[in-house]
Specification:
By secondary structure, this protein is of the alpha/beta class. It has a single domain, classed as TIM Barrel. It has 12 helices and 10 strands. The radius of gyration is 19 Å and the shape is globular.
Length: about 350
């Protein structure tokens, strides 16, 4: 066990003013986003887009870590530099998504289980040799009629804990991502109740698997109303509910919580993160930061649209969103920043 190295890396991932960029979308998900904008759905187009991201000037000022997928960690820039080296050379910690995606859970209609434990230890060792210092595993929970069930929550919690234990055994920091999805018409209070249950079971399993909590990062959802809910709570109400939920369920030993964006609009995700830090930062035992994908990338992708002539403008937009989230990370984000 590489205990001190794991703890040091975990603390570096949640360093003051910084957060994590998630560029680990599956090929299918990336292709769907490309298709909407008329971008070719090819490996080369994905490589070009990810080079745009890793080559963005100044990104390391706001970003502590970058999560890649298997395809990206094996790719290179146009000049032949492996992405893994390019990321490490600019002072960003390299991470890798290692789960095998979700599938329907047998006997549990409407619910999902995450695959990928088979052969995971060997894959983690390979990624470690390639330069990865942390990993990510995502479990998803749908809110609906009588779901998520205790069986689904428990099965995914066990898998998350086993994954985390395997990561630490080979010296990687596990990002533990239990996501209660925004899909649906449920209210914020239902999301709060389900997120409570999920986090309780996840941390129970992490302790049973003897995972070192000082050497993990939690990547949860914010406590939000469903996308189709008739009532959308204010930024302050979301911040209050989310922090109360975390204080009830996340042990103080955990160094940091890096929220997923989960489909939130970019500006709103920044504002909600900012409200939490502005109101509660001085009273919290752990750091509150971001591990956003679409909330950082989508504005840049909308500008790029696969055109070489738009690379610089897209990179400036990507940097701007990272800068806004860096400010939100410290409770210093203001709406006027969006006019810059």
């Amino acid at each position: 066990m590489h205990t001190q190295d794991i703890i040091t890396t975990a603390k570096a991932l949640v360093a003051e003013g910084k957060g994590i960029i998630a560029m680990d979308e599956s090929n299918a998900t990336c292709n769907k986003r490309f298709a909407v904008l008329g971008i070719p759905q090819t490996e080369e187009a994905r490589r070009t887009y990810r080079e745009l991201i890793v080559s963005t000037p100044g990104l390391n000022e706001c970003i502590s870590g970058a999560i890649l997928c298997d395809e990206t960690i094996r790719q290179k820039k146009n000049d032949g530099t492996p992405f893994a080296k390019a990321i490490a050379d600019c002072g960003i910690i390299l991470g890798i998504k290692v789960d095998g995606g979700t599938k329907d859970m047998e006997g549990y209609p409407g619910e999902k289980i995450t695959e990928g434990l088979d052969g995971l230890s060997d894959r983690l060792m390979e990624y470690s040799k390639m330069g990865a210092r942390f990993a990510k595993w995502r479990a998803v929970f749908v809110i609906g009629d009588s779901i998520p069930s205790d069986g689904c929550i428990m099965a995914n919690a066990i898998a998350l804990a086993q994954y985390a234990s395997l990561c630490q055994h080979v010296g990687l920091v596990p990002i533990v991502e239990p996501e209660v999805l925004m899909n649906g018409d449920h209210n914020m209070h239902r999301c709060l109740a389900e997120t409570d249950k999920v986090l309780q079971k996840v941390f129970n399993q992490l302790k049973l698997q003897r995972v070192i909590l000082e050497g993990i990062i939690l990547k949860p959802n914010m406590v939000l109303p469903g996308l189709d809910s008739h009532r959308q709570e204010t930024i302050e109400e979301v911040a209050d509910a989310t922090v109360k939920c975390l204080l009830r369920n996340v042990p103080a030993e955990v160094p940091g919580i890096a929220f997923l964006s989960g489909g939130q609009p970019s500006v709103l995700a920044s504002a909600r993160l900012n409200a939490m830090n502005a109101q509660f930062k001085s009273r919290l035992p752990w750091e509150l930061t971001f591990s956003f994908s679409r909330a950082i990338q989508q504005p840049a992708l909308d500008i790029w649209q696969g055109k070489e002539s738009q690379v610089v403008a897209a990179q400036q937009t990507l940097y701007h969103r990272a800068l806004c989230n860096s400010a939100a990370r410290s409770g210093k984000y203001i709406a006027e920043m969006e006019k810059a």
